[in-house]
Amino acid sequence: MTISGNLSASGFICEPEKRALFATDSYFLDGCELFSDTDETWRFAFTHALLLLKPDAVATRALLPAIEWTSQAGFEIAAAARIRLNRNTVRAMWHYQFNCATPQRRRLAEFIGSASDSLVLLMRHQQLLSNASIPATLLLSERKGPSDPSRRTPGQLRSHLGDRSFLINLVHASDEPADLLRELCILFNAHDRIKLVRNALLGTDQRNTATALAKGLYDDVPRRDLEFEPAAHRLASEVEEYARNAGPGLRSRLQTGLGRALRQPSAWGPLIELIWQQNLPVDEWDLTVVGCASLPMTLDQHAPLLASVSRTKWLEAFTAVAACPQHM
């Protein structure tokens, strides 16, 4: 039987288009090899979920509130690890969404993802041991909340941690079981992911480990507010200082761009582009916060290669499979 056939039968993936793409995705194929038995792989991927607390969560001191929220939401922390993303891991994680992202969004996302170490939580939900209508990944993804702050609702993790912007959204969660397997293989090499999974299968709650890792990150990474108005104020001061010492041509362009930005916050975009073009030594977090609020994020002529998975789509596709005793 082909890989795509196994996926269809075992319920890793909801949509046929996604099954076709993942059938040739080397990260996902590696994830399918975590266990020698397909049912064992399915059982692990169905009952566990991955939450990535990104550098913006570290900087805003959202790690400990997120850990507390997971307990309130009914999740146990099965394993935890501190990792460092880079440009390539950021691109791989969001490969199927970046086709409709602007170059500016990709650049900003790369900085946010690699600005410091991140915290990975591998979690399980006790209700799934007796009620397996949807996987842990989808349950967590729903409760995490969408990237768009205007679509979030009270009680969702992103709303709980504080609404900022489309990109400065603090956390990422795998959509469905296949994404969990794929993302484990993006974030961790073979040795480290096997170690993480083995720790998760011990069945203990690793909340104390996660808390210790979070406190270590707080010690190592300076706190930042990541709010638009203070970031814009600090960035304006840096641009003014640089303009005073620049040549006449660049000085004029910086002063003109800054004047427009100060009159209308949405007009920061061209000045951000000029700062990048000239490689000005400004604070990167302030530049990113202002850029996220003023630069274009989406290429309207394109749609993401893969859309988010909804509870309705999952139940329509896999209710019968999820209820099958041989998979529990």
Task: Quickly list its features.
NDK-like_dom, elongated, NDK-like_dom_sf, alpha+beta, Nucleoside diphosphate kinase-like domain-containing protein, 4-stranded antiparallel beta sheet, disordered C terminus
Question: How would you explain this protein's 3D organization?
Answer:
This is Nucleoside diphosphate kinase-like domain-containing protein. Belongs to the NDK family. InterPro entries: NDK-like_dom, NDK-like_dom_sf. The chain contains 18 helices and four strands. By secondary structure, the chain is α+β, with helices and mostly antiparallel strands. The chain has two domains: 245 residues, Nucleoside diphosphate kinase-like domain (Alpha-Beta Plaits), CATH 3.30.70.141; 67 residues, no CATH class. Strands 2-3-1-4 form a four-stranded antiparallel sheet, with helices on both faces. Helix 14 packs antiparallel against helix 15 and helix 14 packs across helix 17.
